[in-house]
Design brief:
- The chain has helices at about 1-25, 65-80, 105-110, 120-130, 180-195, 220-230, 235-260, 270-275, 285-290, 310-320, 350-355, 370-375, 380-390, and strands spanning about 45-50, 85-90, 135-140, 145, 165-170, 175, 200-205, 265, 295, 325-330, 365-370, 410-415, 420, 430-435, 440-445, 450-455, 460-465, 480.
- The protein is of the alpha/beta class.
- It has 2 domains: about 40-385, TIM Barrel, CATH 3.20.20; about 410-475, Sandwich (Immunoglobulin-like).
- The protein has an 8-stranded parallel barrel with strand order 1-2-3-7-8-9-10-11, surrounded by 5 helices. Strands 15-14-17-18 form a 4-stranded antiparallel β-sheet, with no helix packed on it.
- The radius of gyration is 29 Å and the shape is globular.
Amino acid sequence: MKYLKYLTLIIFIAFVASCSKDNDDDIIPPPEENTPSTLPQKELRGVWATTAWGIDWPMEEYDATAQKQKYIDYLNLLVENKMNAIFFQIRGMADAFYDSQYESWSKYITGTAGVKPSYDVLEFLVEEAHKRDIQFHAWLNPYRISTRANKGSAFPQLDPKIPTELTKDYEKIRIYNPALPEVQTRITQIVKEIITKYDVDGIHMDDYFYPALEASESMNDNAEYEKYGKAQFDNIADFRRNNVNVVIQNIQKTIIETRPDVIFSISPAANMDSNYNTLFADVKKWSKEGWVDVVIPQLYFATGTEESSFNQRLNLWSQYIYENHLLVGYGVYKFGDPAYGSKFQSSEDLQKQFDFAKTKPKVKGSVLYSVKYLVENKVRIMDVIRNVYKTPVLLPYLGRTIAEKPNTPTNVRVSGSNLSWSGVQAAYYAVYKDNGINQIASLIGTTKDTTFKLNEKGTYFVTALDKKNAESDLSESVTY
């Protein structure tokens, strides 16, 4: 009896196993998901345009029509070379390229300080950039008011809107006194005025904070230290750094409270020690604390292995980017100038600089100094730039928090050669051609509409992007 029970059990198990195998054979595995191509990497491709001394614009051209055309020519050059951002100096000398309650119209617009031009300059600059899908970053210097050749020369007459008691003079430069609370507030209010009145995409500062003085000079701020800092700081250097810290913090706080979509960027000098000890700009702290959204160090050096080379400077700066973002500032002005050495006498080293930057995952783009040198095109630097920027890209998300994705476009369809979809509120759209699994998709174009004309057969999908360039998930694919 025991034997029969075991035999029955064995037969039962075999039967079940057989059924299970048959069931497995009957199950049809789901088809492999039609995974689209990988999205191409996003990248900011920008250029600086300097207006102090009229360097890039308007270059002593005071006719409004000619000024506008020169700027449009610059923008068209950017579009032609698939660039997507301009960092335009709108306040280089405590002057204004806009109607300001704090400072008068810049002399570099009309040739005479305080004379109102015939058009709203900043509105024009921003609108023309946006027409071409170019991001506009308003570049200003926080403290510099004017310069002179030496102390034997006179400074230009002080703008009547600027209280004399807020200024401090040195041998070659007049500045807003960084130690004064009134100055700290004034600079913050100037930023608020700009972002409230104009649709700029960013506020940008370069490396002018406390002035780099002549060897014979002192900062001459002991009285301010006694009044405002001695009770809190053990030394005057920390007091100076804190004065700048307050401005940086307050600017970002004002941006967040007023227009949180605005990007706050700073382009420091490449030498961290000089920033910290001479300009009293504690850029590493600003980066670590998240007070600055984007850092763009001025890496105006040739490639190499020495400490001051492009490579080693970029290696160092990459270590001090935390939750914020890193772009690289390229000194294209040096190429073709014999004063800067042999490596700058051809465009070969510029290509090497770009190639090295691409090995750094934290780098999200480039800004070139400056736009007039693209026009001059010495030693054919534009050949390198066209090669590096040969395919169109989207701007990266440079926000200060984790990106919140917009909703995904739906109801994607093709009618004839027209691709269309259901829209997403307050978004623009990117149209991609799917090149297959494990391939990089091709960015065909961007649009604010919900239709797009296709020029070649293929499979396409769409994404939505918000004002901060955060991108949605991919839509369903359709074939044309």
